[in-house]
Amino acid sequence: MSGAVLGEPLLTPDQVAEHLSVSRDVVYDLVQQGRLACVRVNTRTVRFTSEQVRGYVEARTSEARPTRLADDLAPRRTRRPRVQSES
Fold first, then answer.
1. Cα separation of 10 and 82, whole Å?
2. What is the pLDDT of residue 62?
3. d(CA 46, CA 31)
4. For the whole model, what pTM was predicted?
5. What is the dihedral of CA 27, 32, 34, 37, to 10 degrees?
6. pLDDT for the residue numbered 71
7. What's the CATH architecture for 1-60?
8. SS3 label, residue 53
9. What is the DSSP letter of 11?
10. What are the mean pLDDT values of the chain's consecutive 10-residue runs (87 residues total)?
11. How many CB atoms within 10 Å of residue 49?
12. For position 67, what pLDDT does the model report?
């Protein structure tokens, strides 16, 4: 079993949906696609361990990209090439 602790309450699809801020249908779609692991209680009922939900969130979490400093956002002054007069 993937880190499930006996005695730990299992989460319902509604609880997982609320935790992820998505609809219950999205939770079922994620299970069907194999992207969110679940515990199959029977052929129609699924439940989730907190570890399974945490694993999904961690797998979908991307690292923040460094932001540019305000100095980098300011327009840069460029030098114009000198134009030689033809006199």
1. 74
2. 87
3. 9
4. 0.66
5. 50
6. 56
7. Orthogonal Bundle (1.10)
8. helix
9. B
10. 68 98 97 96 95 95 73 64 71
11. 20
12. 67
